[in-house]
């Protein structure tokens, strides 16, 4: 992912509307790119700050953003892993079923 694509996806990331693959690419990019990380921090500050204007609780946005990045990454990785496992299981079942059926119909 390049900076242009990354910046285009900041809002989607903050709304949790990126798919697993894009989330992993996004997090990997902002972690290694100071400029995009800065842009993400600002967007996060604006969106979260506005939401919390009423509640006078203090918050540590840097810390929270980091948590959000970690959480998004592990969730995305889990989903991808889960998807691969599901794919393998479905393939195995279909393959076995095909084998059973072809054995049944040859006799
Ligand atoms: Zn960048």
How does this structure look, described?
This protein has 107 residues and is an all-alpha fold. The protein has one domain (3-79). It has helices at 3-8, 10-14, 20-32, 34-51, 61-106. The chain is elongated. The model has no long low-confidence stretch (mean pLDDT 89). The structure holds zinc ion.
As an assembly, this protein is single chain
Q: In sequence order, what are the helices and strands, one letter per element?
A: HHHHH
Computed over alpha carbons, the radius of gyration is 21 Å
Number of helices, where a helix is a run of at least 4 consecutive DSSP H or I residues: 5
Strand content: under 5%
Strands, count: 0
**Distinct small-molecule ligands in the complex:** zinc ion
Question: Which class best fits the helix and strand makeup?
Answer: mainly alpha
Q: How many domains, in number, for the residues?
A: 1
Residue windows where pLDDT falls under 50 for at least 5 positions:
none
Classify the helix fraction into a percent range.
over 70%
- Biggest sheet character: none
The 3D shape can be described as: elongated
Q: How much is the average pLDDT?
A: 89
Distance between the termini: 55 Å
Blueprint of the fold:
Layout: H1 3-8, H2 10-14, H3 20-32, H4 34-51, H5 61-106
This protein binds zinc ion.
The site of zinc ion (ZN) has 6 residues, from helix 1 and helix 4.
Quick overview:
With 107 residues, the chain is mainly α. Helices cover 82% and strands 0% of the residues. The chain has 5 helices and no strands.
